[in-house]
Amino acid sequence: MTWVEIGPGEWPIGALPYGVFSTGGNRHLGVAIGRWVLDLHRAANVGLFKGVVEPDVLMGGSLNPLLARTPRVWDGVREHITELLSDPIHEPKVSPLLTELRDVQLHLSWQVGDFVDFYGSLQHAENLGRMLRPDSEPLMSNWRHIPVAYHERAGTVVVSGTDIRRPHGMVETADGVRFAPSQRLDIEIELGFVLGNPSDPGTLIRTASAHEHLFGVVVVNDWSARDIQAFESRPLGPFLGKSFATSVSAWVLPMAAVEAARVPPPPQEPEPAPHLRLADPWALDIGFDAWLKREGETPLRLSTTNASTLYWTAPQQIAHLTSNGTPIRAGDLIATGTISGDDPGSYGSLIEITGNGASAIQIGGRDSTFLEDGDEIVITAAAHLGGGSTASLGEVRGRVGMISPLP
Amino acid sequence: MTWVEIGPGEWPIGALPYGVFSTGGNRHLGVAIGRWVLDLHRAANVGLFKGVVEPDVLMGGSLNPLLARTPRVWDGVREHITELLSDPIHEPKVSPLLTELRDVQLHLSWQVGDFVDFYGSLQHAENLGRMLRPDSEPLMSNWRHIPVAYHERAGTVVVSGTDIRRPHGMVETADGVRFAPSQRLDIEIELGFVLGNPSDPGTLIRTASAHEHLFGVVVVNDWSARDIQAFESRPLGPFLGKSFATSVSAWVLPMAAVEAARVPPPPQEPEPAPHLRLADPWALDIGFDAWLKREGETPLRLSTTNASTLYWTAPQQIAHLTSNGTPIRAGDLIATGTISGDDPGSYGSLIEITGNGASAIQIGGRDSTFLEDGDEIVITAAAHLGGGSTASLGEVRGRVGMISPLP
Questions:
Q1: Spatial distance between the Cα atoms of A304 and A294, rounded to a whole number of angstroms
Q2: Residue B257: strand, helix, or coil
Q3: Which residues is A150 bridged to in the sheet?
Q4: What DSSP designation does A151 have?
């Protein structure tokens, strides 16, 4: 189906994820195929997209110009890339534009506009409610009525592989409130949606039209400093406990590549308000595995979870986000919130896995709760397309590798 | 002191605020002087900034390229503009670059990076605490330890004069939860700081160095839908109740123009943590007047308040914001939070002025609480420089002028 040689575990022709890479010089937009990246900048520059899209759209060193266009353009570009890589007639022109992935540096694929983090997993919301508010109902009274969310910091979204600094912050200790390195550094396994096809202010995007603004998916690790978050969050929500870093996978996998992973979402009770209702409900059967790698120890699988268990769906989140007239910009990012299933093996954060630090996990025969310096977290994800076929979303990895130079 | 004719109430040579304007064609960066705007794009293009700054910095149609530079460049550009407008030798070259303000359209002066809204007024936090949590201490236990804040939406920051749509949202009513136009549309009088001189990840910006990242000030109206906000905010803070719009003044007044308005801030008790301490504390004596204009009625002054009453200062807010290693980008915006003084005449929001809607204000002999369709809010601000001299920040205005076309 493609003239490119595809080895096992390499990017297939059905994936074609977008990324931004460099080989010492300028950043170029590219598409992964096999163990290669196709340089879209150079391809556009030599006229390979003539009649498909203006070359500028592929030559900005970022996905944003493409995100600013419509699904028709997205589809046209994807079809043309598929054609270039399928018909051997194109090989002489295209193969010089392939660079081995091991020879390139990957960068954040797009400039993030606004970043909204949802709280879409019922199990996660209940788990946190039980731990943090043991004397109340685990679920807040608004949770089943709206996809609860907050804005995170766009400027600290970093590409997979970026080392993560353990943040300092104001935390409450037995000795009072003090400024100290976080002792409760955590992960959150999430699915991210990269948005595009800008909408007009004052337009509610209907759930049935939400797909027109969903460009693709990324794997997200929403690093969280639980002690900083706990002290700061009332009454305006999380701020510095989250803003130090959010890691995303380098490759943005277009929605077209995960279309076949659509499955029915869990039932919703009560029925959502009319603008949040779904004529044709869909979730994505995307499985995640999170690994903790500690030097000298066997990697520990922390969680195996699945986005299909999320209560609130992406179309509902987009309808909610725009329901007050807020427009979508090219490059906005929404994340699902931590994905936790029913059993502890599918919890998406260490605070849940360890029962708020009460029950340690074992690594190399030693008790551990939150992240230690040097720990690396690797989250992989793959969409299940039916018939045993899968589409990889790649991975997001980050090491608690740098001690902050703060006081 | 300047060869430009300056009428009463017009922009003086000591102000020189930056703005972005157009006269039918492209957007150009400019500086206001008298009743004119000096076209910095054209000035740079004809070489008037040779030896001062690369022309590109002034020719992007946005303040961002200048924000990306250092205070040394900011000062150099400002000094040179002052020179161009002061020495009559420059008049022949410069006067053709002046356009009357009444002939230009003003735009948002810069692309907002991340937008953080603080909660810096003790009186405002206490007023809201008393109203919204009557059975608890008005102030949360964290409030005096950290400058509490949250991220707002950068993509819906709009320039003064932009009409504001009344947002729809999910609100709790006697009949249950429903999706409806907000009935409690409110204002928040705030001072905004436009940030620049990007910092490195992992760097805590000391309170004593914070001024190196403060480019200038704007007047902010942080429109708030109290009913939407009340239902959605637990536990992750405000989201759609704020994200529909935040208005800022068109002109960014450089810090140099308000330097002389520095006054001691209120005392802080307990003493802040070391990284939030101030060797040389300063607040800004900037007075605000907020007016409600309703068609056919005499404009009503809603509030006269002053930024010098704010408990948390901008240097502390920047130290806090970066204390977890978060870098500053060119174009980040921080806002002080609603500015409320001790007496009701100085409250910065309608929820405070009306006691959460319990005590109406009178307009044209009729009771009123929150904003009605057609209402226009105008907030003016001026820095008091000592000796009776003032520096205007201009105004931010917005009319609840468009009914949202949502269902």
A1: 19
A2: helix
A3: A117
A4: E
Calpha distance A175→A189 (Å, rounded) = 33
Q: How far is CA B218 from the centre of its chain?
A: 4
* Tens place of pLDDT per residue across chain A (407 aa): 899 999 999 999 999 999 999 999 999 999 999 999 999 999 999 999 999 999 999 999 999 999 999 999 999 999 999 999 999 999 999 999 999 999 999 999 999 999 999 999 999 999 999 998 899 999 999 999 999 999 999 999 999 999 999 999 999 999 999 999 999 999 999 999 999 999 999 999 999 999 999 999 999 999 999 999 999 999 999 999 999 999 999 999 999 999 999 999 999 999 999 999 999 999 999 999 999 999 999 999 999 999 999 999 999 999 999 999 999 999 999 999 999 999 999 999 999 999 999 999 999 889 999 999 999 999 999 999 988 899 999 999 999 986 655 55
Distance from CA of B28 to the nearest CA of A (A): 22
The partner residue sitting opposite A273, judged by closest CB among B119, B145, B179, is B179
Domain B18-107, CATH: 2.30.30.230
Alpha helices in B157-313 (DSSP H): 226-232, 240-243
ω before B235 within 30° of 0 (cis)? yes
User: What is the β-pairing status of strands B165-166 and B402-403?
Assistant: parallel
The CA angle A302-A305-A307, to the nearest 5 degrees, is 145
A323 at B interface, C-beta within 8 A: yes
How far is it, in rounded angstroms, from Cα B171 to Cα A268? 19
Active site residue A211: no
Within chain A, all domains assigned CATH 3.90.850.10 are found at 115-399
Residue corresponding to tokens 């802080």: B268
Which residues, listed in sequence order, are joined to residue B204 by a DSSP beta bridge?
A: none
For the beta carbon of residue A136, count every other beta carbon within 10 angstroms. Answer: 10
Catalytic residue among A41, A107, A124, A320: A124
**Is residue A335 within 8 angstroms of chain B, CB to CB?**
no
Torsion, Cα of A307, A310, A314, A319 (10° steps): -170
Which residues are paired to B291 by β-bridges?
B301, B378
Q: Which residues of B fall within a CB distance of 8 Å from A323?
A: 168-170, 179, 240, 406
Nearest to B170 among A146, A326, A402 (CB): A146
Residues 6+ apart with CB under 8 A from B172: B227, B230, B231
Per CB-CB distance under 8 Å, the chain A contacts of B165 are 201-202, 325
User: Is residue B148 within 8 Å of residue B142, measured between CB atoms?
Assistant: yes
B203 to chain A, any CB pair closer than 8 A? The answer is yes
* Domain B115-399 -> CATH class: alpha beta
Rounded to 5 degrees, φ, ψ at A372 are: -100, 160
**Can you spell out the DSSP letters for A15-75?**
T--EEEEESSSS-EEEEEEBTEEEEHHHHHHTTTTTTTS-GGGG-SSSSHHHHTS-HHHHH
Q: Which residues in chain A touch residue B316, judged by CB atoms under 8 angstroms apart?
A: none
What angle is formed at CA A306 by the lines to CA A214 and CA B170, rounded to 5 degrees?
55
* CA nearest to A127, candidates A295, A284, A350: A350
Cite the residue boundaries of each domain of chain B with CATH code 2.30.30.230.
18-107
Annotated catalytic residue, options B107, B124, B320, B384: B124
Contacts of A204 in chain B (CB under 8 A): 168, 406-407
Distance of residue A359 Cα from the nearest chain B Cα, in angstroms: 25
Reported ipTM: the value is: 0.97
| pTM of the entire predicted model | 0.97
Q: A76 is written with which tokens? A: 């046209």
Q: Please say whether the beta carbons of B43 and B58 come within 8 A.
A: yes
